[in-house]
Amino acid sequence: MPQNKVKTLCYEIKDEHYVYFGIWVFNDTVGGAMKVFYYLVFALIIGACSVESEETSTTTIVPVTSDGSASSPVELTVGTAKEGSVAKSGYSYYKFTPGSTAAGSYKLAIASLSITDSGSSSSSVTTYLYSDSGYSSELDNESCQASCTLNFNYAGLDNGSTYYLKIYGYDGEGTYSLTVSQGGSEGSVNNPVALTVDTTHTGKVEGTSTYGKSYYKFTTLSHIDPANYTLTMTNSDSMDCDLYSDSGFSTLVSYTNNKCTPGTDLLDNFTGSSGSGLTGNITYYLSIEGQSSTAKASTYDITVACPGC
User: What is the DSSP string of 126-137?
Assistant: First the structure.
């Protein structure tokens, strides 16, 4: 049968005329030989239609979709990678919770980042960090055009609190792998690490002289007031410290008497606002920060002591 006639019959079959064509073949009253002929023709036509269908098939491109929603963000587990994606000019939503005793800085690794359907060379993914589920209290935002690690200004996050991430696909759709992990600073304003007087603690801090602190607190002993306290730090990098009288780390006990002179192996006397010592049975708050102009992680041994107590 000529190819154009086969195609015509194919179109009839595809247009759902095959029911009538099939009835015509199987109800023909000619001899057995002719029936065999018609059956053969019918089989050839079906085969031709199959070839025709394969020749005209196309590949469907599935667009990249965004993850989660503002009301139902995707849960990220600290220390575990999670594959994700964001649509072009769309938002993906995530959340994570530091452990119950893991206050400190956190970082987000965006690995295997691929940006497609890009409209310009500046296409990127922008990540926003929030402290509330309403995505209104922004803590930081940073953009990446390739795989990167975000440190969120080395801010101290609270243990047991949930934080929210929003990722925007700027002028392109992105696929990636996300991993939240603990950073190099410890404690936070709301959850400082507790130090015990006369006991050495091995601590750490990460950041610069502008961003990144570790937070501590200690309670003075019972003694005749006031009493002199000392801070001793064994560290290889230049550090600085501040002593506060309030849990908000906002009121310095005395800038003149209780702020460390930046340096290595710190030794400082905490002599209180009067210059004569600290009051007994009172909780004081201490922050430690690095002095590097570029981001750096440092460790140290820190001891608060009362030599005359």
Answer: EEEEESSTTS-S
Tens digits of residue pLDDT in 97-137: 999 999 999 999 999 999 998 878 889 999 999 999 999 99
Q: What SS3 class is residue 266?
A: coil
Contact criterion met (CB below 8 Å) for 207 and 290: yes
User: pLDDT tens-digit profile of 19-44?
Assistant: 333 333 344 444 444 444 444 344 44
Give CA separation, 15 vs 8, 21, 45, in Å: 11, 12, 14
What are the structure tokens assigned to 221, written together? 């002993």
Q: What ranges make up the beta strands (E) of the chain?
A: 74-75, 82-86, 91-96, 104-116, 124-130, 138-144, 148-150, 163-170, 173-186, 193-195, 201-207, 213-219, 229-235, 239-244, 267-270, 283-290, 296-305
Q: d(Cα 243, Cα 235) in Å, to the nearest integer?
A: 19
User: In the chain, which residue ranges form alpha helices assigned H by DSSP?
Assistant: 3-12, 18-26, 32-55, 255-258
Q: Which two tokens stand for residue 226?
A: 């006031």
DSSP code at position 154? G
Whether this prediction's pTM lies above 0.85 is answered by no
Residues in CB range of 60: below 8 A, 6 or more apart: none
